[in-house]
Amino acid sequence: MDQRKMYWAIVKMAILLLVLASCEKEVVQTNDSQPIAKEQPDTLRMIKLGKKLENPYSVKNMRKAYANLLKKQGESQKNYGSQTLKDSSEITTTDYYVKFWVENDEQKQLLLADSLNLSEIPLDVEIKEEGDYYVDENTEILEAQWLYASVLKDYKVPNGISYEKVEDLFLVEPSNIDADEDGQDDSKTTTIAGKTGISKEFLFDLEDEALRLTGNYEESANSYQEKSKKTPQGYVKVYNTVTKKMDPVVGVKVKTRRWFTWAKG
């Protein structure tokens, strides 16, 4: 009789231990799953592109703009005080709009070493929504990508990098020089397409006319002096967790793009 009682006592004890172990296991599983439920969703936003824009800086459109500007100049009898282009045939290619097929970081660094301003986004499309990153849906290879840039017409592409020329450009400002707030050029004339002493004011008027012609004109600077000194301005701030305030970041340079030319400030 005592042996039977002892036997059943051992059985009950074993069952109790199994139940406790099972409960403990369930608690552990519940605790492990909590961090997953608390994960925050990705807050980065993808840049969304719109329609392809008509390029005001193509040689073809610049020549059309030149014809329009001549008519307006005759009506207003505006005097630029310096040389202007004699006819539309003097509007020739200064730069190329190209896209590079970059297969790895080594190739990208070769292009950056040539001081090229590279963009993952095509330079002649509308940006419908600003964001933090861009994904080219036409790129099937994750390691490779198209990068877009404007280059001087005599630029030599590094060996091994494939590229396509998108369009011939006539740029009134050099594409290989970043406008900088610390290095303003106050001269009233410039050299363009092999022609020296050309009025900058005339070239800015030509640029504005090309923008109007292609439906891309936006009111900005009112005078030649304002346009020639226009550089991007702004600030970058970060949240200070100690002071609970937004603090400015000192020494940051911001680079901006306007079609095929870049500026920093």
UniProtKB/TrEMBL annotation:
* Name of the protein: Lipoprotein
Recite the lineage of the species.
Answer: Bacteria, Pseudomonadati, Bacteroidota, Flavobacteriia, Flavobacteriales
